[in-house]
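Worked example

This section walks through a single chain of length 520. The input is the sequence exactly as stored; nothing has been trimmed or padded.
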Amino acid sequence: MHIDIIETLPSLAKLEDNWNAVYDADDEAQIFLSWKWLKGWLSCIPGPWFILAAKAGDAADLPYVAFFPLRLQTKIEKSDIVCDMRMAGNFAADYTGLICRPEMENKVIPAFARYVRQMNWTRLNLDNLRMSERRVRLLLACFPKAGFRYTELNRINKVDGIDNGLCPYVTLPKSWDAYLESLSPNTRQKIRRLLKQVDAKGEYRITVATPETFAQDLKTLLGFWETKWRPRKGDRVDSLVQSNGVMLTRSFESGLVYLPTFWHGDRAVAALATLVDPRKRTFSFYMTGRDETFDGPPPGVILHAFSIRHAIELGYAEYDFLRGNEPYKYSFGCAERKILGTVLESRNGRDLGGGIDRRSIPDVLQQATELHRKGKAADAEMGYRRILDVQPKHADALHRLGQLLAARSDFTAAKRLFRTLTTVRPDAAKAWQCLGQVCESLGQHEEALRQHLEFMRLQPDSPDGFVAVARCMSKLGRLAEVNAALLAAIEPASGPSVRKWRDWRSIPNRQAARENSISA
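Given that input, the structure is written out below as tokens.
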């Protein structure tokens, strides 16, 4: 198998038809692996993502037969760098996995596993993995327990005992009446009675989000959800509201969201967001929220029943309640499926590949810089050095590590870094200034003078350059030249300041020429 890496949105956009062909052929494909949903999600997540794309050879015209979406999260923690390789949909997708033409899975999935094993990561998080046991075995066979430590994630919530590894779903019949007949008599009567109240268009009603109303309907939903969950989730709610809002908005723009709102008169009481997959003919209940002060018909039951009825009217095949075995879900006639949550890491706890992934460099640099600002020099230094291990001429890492070393008086090491920086960014005035400063700290004033003169050439109007050159010339005993330079800098002239600087720069150069002539 030939594997390419897709890591930009334009590259992903070109694959829409190929992706959809594989998606349609794969019975294990689901909404969170659809091209439309994934493209919207990847366009708004931080950090690097990439998709392994497999085909039967390296010819350009061959179509891909499988896709494996992944992402990297790299953190500096406990004086080490931990790189988590995750499923690309994590933190928004209730299900993750890969898509593959069924006849190719025996070749493709082991090829994906071998490729992943050769990459740089500390932990491989197979979280919310919805995949057949057959495919799971093919994927994990490349990670034998003799070399890797397996940790099964506990999916049972400690507060309410809900098992988020169990996912109830309803297989929908052809008609609404047939569905009702599959329920218990009490549930059937309850649903009929409740829907009659909203169908009658009296004091209760349901509206469905349109492009004109979606923003307000989503705001209503997220407001209700935040009120309910903030006491338990705390400040984490803010990021969840933000990410869910962005994901649902992108999904709605792609035609993937069904969002009904339940009203009592002019009062919005509850809302429910469902992800709609027309290719696999599924409704997937994503989130709901309600006014906890409302004392009336149960809005959750009404909205679910209303959505299920609509899905059946459209000819859809499944209504998925997604993660969590809350008892109320089973009253709708659910079966259940189990998803996998496993973390793999090497037995020695070290990164596979021996270094950070190049895609993680921006994240590591950002974190190291923040640690540097906070005075956590040791962790910052480690971050900068790990970047330079992978990319020895990374300009920002060279500059910031040089500053860190100079601050702790390791001027010799700082000088090496700043010298390299001047070759990487010869037009960056700051690089020459830093090199000149550490040369001064080492007592190398002649060399420092040359660096400061180069700084002045690049920034002729900077007073820092004048001061530094004068300081070095003074240290070298060239007081007469300092005085001449000051006169050259302040004398009236018709030309620009650059001309004055050139006149000044020529003074030490002429002096050096005279000295060379004398010594010769």
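What to look for: The longest helix spans residues 497-519.
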